[in-house]
Specification:
Blueprint lengths: L1 H4 L7 E4 L2 E4 L1 H11 L4 E4 L8 E2 L5 E9 L2 E8 L13 H18 L14 H30 L3 H9 L8 H14 L4 H9 L5
Antiparallel strand pairs: 1-2, 3-5, 4-5, 5-6
């Protein structure tokens, strides 16, 4: 769909472990703007929402019809590292189904470019994952520095680190992912997190 190809999805990309995902809810809303009669369907196998394979893993499949054009997209039920899950529960199957929906909409054109990395050779995909793991190690050190500064009574230094433009990636989506990661590392530092929130610079 040419209309979908023209839409910039950068502000709606979610990143997890260095991988990019498109919000299915936002993607479907964009589809309905173009075709209010659009439909999607999660396929079933003998009344089950997934096809279970001999090794215990499972596949889901979704089809999306936009302006009479139907495309199908199968997807393994995976964990957060994009590895197939054995004996997945209902939550994992539902998550995979909605991811398949977003990907199937992508096959119609919306955000198609964010899936380009999926056809990389395994070595390159592993390299991207290794790069994120390296960044996480750096962020762990960053969180530790902030905690130590807070414990030493230098809370303003910790706050300055958080709001420094040099701390984070210049890419908006990656910055959000990095901040989310560090924020989770500070989950036991309630006073520091509150101070960070209370001292947000005026825009």
């Amino acid at each position: 769909m040419s209309e979908l190809l023209k839409i910039n999805v950068n502000g709606h990309i979610e990143k997890k472990n260095g991988l990019s995902y498109l919000s299915w809810a936002w993607a479907w809303a964009e589809v309905l703007k173009i075709d209010p009669q659009a439909t999607w369907k999660a396929h079933e196998w003998n009344g089950l929402p997934a096809m279970f394979l001999p090794d215990g893993s499972a596949m889901v499949k979704v089809s999306v019809t936009i302006k009479g054009d139907t495309k199908e997209c199968p997807l393994p039920v995976m964990n957060h590292r994009n590895q197939a899950i054995k004996n997945p529960d209902a939550f994992a199957i539902n998550t995979a189904t909605m991811r398949a929906l977003a990907k199937c909409i992508g096959m119609h054109g919306l955000g198609l470019y964010i899936y380009a990395g999926e056809d990389l050779p395994p070595g390159e995909a592993e390299a991207e994952e290794a790069e994120w793991a390296k960044r996480c190690a750096e962020l762990d050190e960053l969180a530790l520095v902030m905690v130590e500064a807070d414990r030493e009574g230098r809370q303003l230094d910790a706050i300055a680190i958080w709001y420094s433009t040099e701390t984070w990636s210049p890419d908006v989506a990656m910055k959000a992912e990095e901040q989310k990661y560090v924020w989770s590392q500070l989950r036991e530092q309630s006073a520091l997190r509150r101070a960070i929130k209370d001292n947000k610079p005026a825009e």
